[in-house]
Amino acid sequence: MKISGNEIRVGNILDYQGKLWTVTKTQHTQPGKGGAYMQVEMKSIAEGTKLNERFRSAETVERVYLDEVAFQYLYDDGENLVFMDQQTFEQIYLSKDFVGASAVFLIDNMVVNLSMYEGKPIAVQLPDHVVLEIMEADAVVKGQTASSSYKPAVLTNGVRIMVPPHISTGMKVVVNTIDGTYVERYKEV
Hints:
Order of helices and strands: EEEEEEEEEHEEEEEEE
Number of strands: 16
Strand content: over 45%
Number of domains: 3
Number of helices: 1
Distance between the termini: 47 Å
Radius of gyration: 22 Å
Helix content: under 10%
Largest sheet: 6 strands, antiparallel
CATH architecture of the largest domain: Roll
Oligomer: single chain
Strand order of the largest sheet: 1-6-2-3-4-5
CATH class of the largest domain: Mainly Beta
CATH topology of the largest domain: SH3 type barrels
Shape: extended
């Protein structure tokens, strides 16, 4: 869908110069001399590079809409991560680099959203939080509980995080998949 330069907003996906770009920042500028324009900062979805462009209101650019498809994580085959479409049961193989650092938080049978463009995966979005068990936690040092200090712990997936002093080995905790930080102790219902 074509949109004019002054309709570009943060979060839009644009097809520009043969690549897909995510709009990260926009600024409408009206100089004293000449016509108004939209200063747009974009980030390439494929390479991660940034680009600054000016779009006049008379210019048009192609806005892209991505399909969000629910996929279930099945397993890690060593080189790739295997996902299954929840509707068609078709399996796809994605490299660990494609999924990125959040791949360590994938749990068998976890449902993730894949952003698809023309049938090809563009990005993977995990749930915001995941429940994991503490495999190893340092002992509490006497007097450490008086202040809001944290201690290191290792999760069952091998990731090291900082947890409050009251968390011990065997407890389940909620972890933020975006930045890998402790959120809260998991309370089973």
